[in-house]
Amino acid sequence: MPLDVLLADLRAIVGEKGIRTSLAARQRASVDEAAMSPLLASRLPLGLADVVVLPATIGEAQAAVALAVAHGVPLTARGKGTGNYGQAIPAFGGIVLDLTRLRTVLDVGEGMIVAEAGARMIDLELRARDHDQQLWIFPSTVQSTLGGFLAGGSAGTGTIQHGNTRQGFVVSLDVLLATEGAPLVHVEGGACNDYLHSFGVTGIIVRATVRLEPVADWTAVYASFADLGEATRALRAAGAVRPAPRLVSVDDAGIVAALPADEALPTGRASLRVVAERSTVAEVEAIIRSGGGRVEAVRDGFRSALELSLLSYNHPSWWLIRSAPGRIFHLEIFGEELVDRPHEIQAALPGGRLHVEVGHSFTFGAINADYDDETSITSALEVLTALGIATHNNHEWFIDQRVDELRSIARRTDPQGLLNPGKFAGPSPRQR
Fold first, then answer.
1. pLDDT digits 0-9 by tens, 317-360
2. What span, in angstroms and rounded, lies between the C-alpha atoms of 206 and 204?
3. Does the pTM exceed 0.90?
4. Distance CA 184, CA 190 (A)
5. Domain boundaries, position 290
C-alpha cells in the first residue's frame, strides 16, 4: 500500500492530531530500553516506524488495526516503551500504534479497577487509593501504561504477595485481533493469559480490569550491611514477614555506588530495602540488627514507599549501566543460590555486581558484569550454568518463553503475521 494512501486513510480515522510522520517522532516511537544491553545497543536501530498513530478512542484504534489488516501493513502497539529490550521496536516498519491517549479510568469497584490501555499505572494506584484500595501489583517504572505492563511486563511491587500478572491479577481484557475487521474480543480469567506478557504478537490490549485490595499503610525501610551475605540472608527473612512486604531488594556495594545519592544508601556497604506494612516495621528492624546490619532510615507514607520501588527490579542495573555506557551488561538470574552463595556468584564474572529481589515463590535478581563483546554474555551464561545458577538471556529481542503456545495463538489471532513482526525467532522473522 503506497505510504501516501495509507497516511490519507489513517488521517480519515484519527485526524491530524492522531498522526506523527516526522523522523524525530518516528524515531522516538521506535525505541525502547534496548540500549540497556550493550549488545543490542551496537545493533540499533532495529527498526523504524513509517508512521505513528495515536488513537483517541478504542473505536479509532479498531479502525486503524482493521485498515492495517486489510492492506497487510505491519503494526506494533506500544505504551511508554520503558521496560523492553527490543520487543517494542517495529522491526518491519509500518504503523506504531501508540495507545497513550487511551487513558480513561472507567470504573473503580470493590476489588477491581477498569481502565483503557494507555492509563498510567501510577494514576491507577492513586485512583484506587481514593477508594481506600491499592493495586495488587504495579511495575517498578510506575509511569508505565496498563497495556504496556500487561503485554510486556510480568511482575513488580506487590509480586511477593500476589505473584506475576498471569496469576490472577487480570480479571478481564478487551483485545483487538488482527483478523478481518479487527474484532474487539472480551476475555476473562485464564483466557487472558493468551495476551499477557506476549509483547502484542497475539492481539492488542485496549482495555483491562485488574485486581485491587484494601489499602495498606506502607513504610520504606533502608538498611546497610558490611557483608553482602548478611544482607541477602536478611532479605530472605524480611521476605517471610507477614503481612507480606510489598517489596524487598538488595544491592551490593558496587551497585549502591551508582544509585542516586541518599544518606540512606551509604557507600561501601550493601543495601537492603523493604516496603513493609507499618505493623511489621519493628520486626523488620529486628531482622536487620540481629543479622549484622544497620537501619539507615525509616520513611513513612505512600510516596516514600513509591520512591523505594523506583530502586527495584531492573532500575539498579539501569543506574549502574548508565554510569559506564557500553561497558557493563546484566543477566537475569534465579534461585536460592542468590541468597546462599552471593559472593561466589559475584566472583564468577569479571566486575560482578549483584542485585537480588524476593519474589512470590522464588528469589531472583541480576548479575552485572564487565562487557567487552558478545562473548562476554555467552561466557557468563556458561559459567553461571556450570555453577547451577538459573539464567535468562535478556539480550534478545525475540520471544523466548511460551514460544510454541504464543505462536499457535497468533496463527489464529494474527494469521498474516502483522502484529509486532520479527519477535518470533526462526528462518523468517515473520514466520508463523
1. 999 999 999 999 999 999 999 999 999 999 999 999 999 999 99
2. 6
3. yes
4. 18
5. 218-392
* Residues paired with 299 in a beta bridge: 220
DSSP, res 397: S
Pairing of strands 19-20, 51-53: antiparallel
Which residue's C-alpha cell is 498474516?
Answer: 416
Residues 260, 120, single domain; the answer is no
**Is residue 15 located within the same domain as residue 78?**
yes
Rg (CA), the chain: 22
d(CA 33, CA 315): 11
The set of cell numbers assigned to 80 is: 511508554
**Helical packing angle, 3-14 and 58-71, nearest 10°:** 160
Q: Which residues pair with 391 in a beta bridge?
A: 333
Indicate whether 148 and 228 sit together in one domain: no
CATH number, domain containing residue 339: 3.40.462.40
Torsion angle, CA of 77/79/82/86, rounded to 10 degrees?
0
Do residues 157 and 198 share a domain?
Answer: yes
Read off the pLDDT of residues 100-159 as tens digits, 9 standing for 90 and up: 999 999 999 999 999 999 999 999 999 999 999 999 999 999 999 999 999 999 999 999
Length of the chain: 432
Task: Give the ranges where 29-170 is alpha helix by DSSP (H).
Answer: 38-41, 58-71, 121-130, 146-152, 159-162
Judge whether 175 and 155 are in contact, CB under 8 Å.
no
Q: Which three cell numbers stand for residue 197?
A: 506478557
Q: Is 424 a domain residue?
A: no
264 and 354 share a domain? Answer: yes
Clarify whether residues 91 and 144 are in a common domain: no
Cα separations (Å) of 368 from 37, 236, 373?
11, 21, 14
